[in-house]
Amino acid sequence: MKPSELMSYLWYPLSFSIAIALFATLLAQNMPLPIVLYVPIALNGILVMGIEFAFPERKEWRPKWSDIQTDAAFMAVVQIILPKMLMVLVTLAIADQLHAEAGTASIWPHTWPLPAQALLMILSVDLMRYWLHRACHHFTVLWRLHEVHHSPEILYTINTGRFHPLEKVLHFSLDTVPFLLLGVAPEVFAAYFLLYSVNGFFQHSNARIRYGWLNYFVGSAETHRWHHAQDPQTASCNFGSSTVIWDIVFGTWYLPKNNQVEKVGILNGHYPKDFWSQLMAPFKQHRG
Question: What does the pLDDT look like over 195-207, one tens digit per residue?
Answer without folding.
Answer: 999 999 999 999 9
